[in-house]
Amino acid sequence: MAQDSGTRTLISQTQISRGRGRVIYWTLLVVVVAGFTLVFLGPLYWMVTGALKSGQEIAQTPPSLFPKDPQPQNYVDAWNNLALAKLLFNTFYYAIGAVLFQLVLDTAAAYSLSKLRPIFGNVILALMLGTLMIPAMVLIVPQYVTVIDLPIVHINLLDSPFAIWLPLVANAFNIFLLKRFFDSIPEELMAAALMDGATSLRTLWSIILPLSRPILGVVSIFAVTAVWKDFLWPKLVMPSPETRTVSVGIYAFAGGTPMNVVIAASVIAAIPTVIIFLIFQRNIMSGLTTGSIKG
Amino acid sequence: MAITTVPETPRKPGRPPSPYSARPQRTSLGRKVRDNLTGHAFLIGAVLCFVVFSWYPMIRGIVMSFQRTRRGETTWVGWDNYSRIIADPSFWTAWQNTFYFTVLALALGYVVPFFVAILLNEFRHGKGYLRILVYLPVMLPPASALFLFKFYAYDPSEAGLFNAILKALHLPTSQWMQSPEMTMPAMVVASTWMNMGGAVLIYLASLQNIPGELYEAAELDGAGIWRRILHVTIPQTRLILALLAMLQIVATMQLFIEPLILANGAGAEDSATSVAYLIYQHGFFQNDLNGAAALGVIMLVVLAGFSAVYVRLTAKQD
User: Fold this and answer.
1) Which of A74, B220, B235, B250 is the most exposed place for a label (fewest CB within 10 A)?
2) What's the CA angle centered on B250, arms A157 and A252, to 5 degrees?
3) B71 falls within a domain
């Protein structure tokens, strides 16, 4: 609030701080705050309370604003019947693995491309960035065929967490974000480390990484939410009920389960990402804009 | 993983040679080779992942689209997969639906976030709260959000949220997903609600980069709010506007989870079938991975066409 008063935007500060402008400003602000709360928070309220209603109450017209006779049993049923504990554990396990693989491999690659600059590094970078142009849906079939029979080694990765972890490493956006960050670290620091006889790994570990905590945080958060939100790929490569992710599991049960229970399960599935967002919203928002703003 | 954690440390025994040691010619050549090897050792893990899961599948997709695999035997069939896919009556419906969705999503999901961002940027209060609200749906798993829409909002009876609101306003209620006409608009509303937060935040960031003097000068010249938006805001953000238009077209053309969950796939009278859903159907239900690959290549060509137009337009502007 305070820092904004200095910069001039579309409408000047003086115009909205007196007379008619002030009335319009405050009216608009109240209307927008109320409207946005209704549009973006309202559905979530409807979801959480709707899942507390009985099947009878959900079918009544007009719908009730508060559950008359709250049925926490729906949430308990969702937890038990859909084996949500197992589904949440799976998703969590895939998310953590994805973070580790992306942090180790993508950081190493971005460090090499930014600071070590080996021969053909630019060609490799260009080929990586080129994949940003290819829509995921186009690759889904050949990727699936590759995963069920890896070239040369002939391993089938179906139902193996590696089928989620490894393809996520091939993320050009991460490498781009990390490389841009590393590029901004002064070359002199590298030279000084080299003079002291530090190896490349040592330099990465003791100089680059400590300076890069913010960007590593952004990459990790994006990795977790990507796994949590993904649907089609985990649906294809994790076909067994024991290895499903939470979204796929709910979808698989949706047909034969009362809809209140499905919604209750959806609420539970959404809680982790909402919590992550509320904790890390600053990092998420800054990460989202740094990648694109100077484009 | 193990690959990158063992970059060579050849100088462990004894003191590392100083970069300024004797015999500069020999060390500089040896050093060069070694430095390059080190660089590639750090790259290898990520590069292997790109090779196996991105670059190779890209080529394989194109190759597969000209082959047919039956009972483990693969033969070249030329353009057969393409002609079979195009002859499928759903093919044209799917493209029609996908384009319709893309256009509607642009009308709603492209224009609205821009004006929301302009509005938010003017507020001196409550901005943080509004920003969190707009981005909150982006963080929900799409399956969760879509079940909410499917069961509670688009319930065709009067117990559904949208119908209850319409009825309270004395407007005619709708069958939503069960009506072929309403299927697409309903999917666009759900999809925009879920996804617009990202665009709003990116616009907000680019609005903050507009120098305030430009607005001041325009105001001194007597430009009203609309003229200032038209002559300052839009030209100043046009690169981001163009980029997000492109990204949104690519994203909406891949429409998949909305029809799958909201419309159970095809929807009423095929009104929801999308190209991506057709790829999924062919590949994983009709046991026709080659046909699905051909459809994927067609999609790639169409999107590449869009990108070419985009590059042409943005290059001309500068």
Assistant:
1) B220
2) 45
3) no
- For chain B, positions 201-230, list CB contacts with chain A under 8 A: 201-202, 204-210, 212-213, 215-216, 219, 225, 228-229
Within this chain, do residues B233 and B156 fall inside the same structural domain, yes or no? yes
Same domain, yes or no: B203 and B258: yes
B1-43 per-position pLDDT tens digit: 333 333 334 444 444 444 444 444 456 888 888 888 888 999 9
Tally the domains of chain B. 2
Name the band, by pLDDT with cuts 50, 70 and 90, for residue A1: very low
| B157 and B286 belong to one structural domain | yes
Interface of A with B in 211-230 (CB under 8 A): 225, 228-229
* A45 touches B at CB < 8 Å: no
Nearest by CB: A236 against B139, B239, B284: B284
ipTM over 0.95 threshold = no
What CATH number does residue B246 fall under? 1.10.3720.10
Domain ranges of chain A: 13-76, 77-290
Q: What does the pLDDT look like over B114-158, one tens digit per residue?
A: 999 999 998 888 888 999 999 999 999 999 999 999 988 888 888
Q: How far is B195 from chain A (nearest CA, A)?
A: 12
Alpha helices in B51-177 (DSSP H): 56-64, 80-87, 89-109, 111-122, 127-139, 142-148, 161-168
φ and ψ at residue B91, rounded to 5 degrees: -55, -50
Say whether A295 and B240 touch across the interface (CB within 8 A).
yes
CB contact under 8 A, A141 and B54: no
Residue by residue, DSSP assigns B131-166 as: HHHHHHHHHS-HHHHHHHIIIIIS-SSTTSHHHHHH
Q: Which of A3, A37, A140, A247 to mutate to test the interface with B (most CBs of B within 10 A)?
A: A140
User: Are residues B50 and B132 located together in one domain of the fold?
Assistant: no
Tell me how long chain A is: 295
Measure CB to CB from residue A269 to each of B123, B144, B250 and give the nearest one.
B144
Task: Give backbone dihedrals phi and psi of A285, rounded to 5 degrees, phi first.
Answer: -70, -40
Rounded distance, CA B83 to CA B92, Å? 13
Would an 8 Å CB–CB cutoff place B21 in contact with chain A? Answer: no
B318 pLDDT tier (thresholds 50, 70, 90)? low
Domain membership flag for residue B205 = yes
Model pLDDT, residue A40? 93
Residue B101 burial (C-beta neighbours within 10 Å; 0-12, 13-18, 19+): buried
- Shared domain check, B218 and B115: yes
Q: By residue range, what is the domain housing residue B37?
A: 1-8+26-54
Closest chain A C-alpha to B239 CA, distance in angstroms: 7
B179 plus B35 within the same structural domain: no
Can the peptide bond before residue B141 be classed as cis, meaning omega within 30 degrees of 0?
no
Arch. (CATH architecture) of A77-290: Orthogonal Bundle (1.10)
Within-domain flag for B141? yes
As given in the structure block, the two tokens for residue A262 are: 């499905």
Please check whether residue A258 touches B, CB under 8 A. Answer: no
Residues B32 and B153 in one domain: no
The shortest CB-CB distance from B254 to any of A137, A150, A274 is to: A137
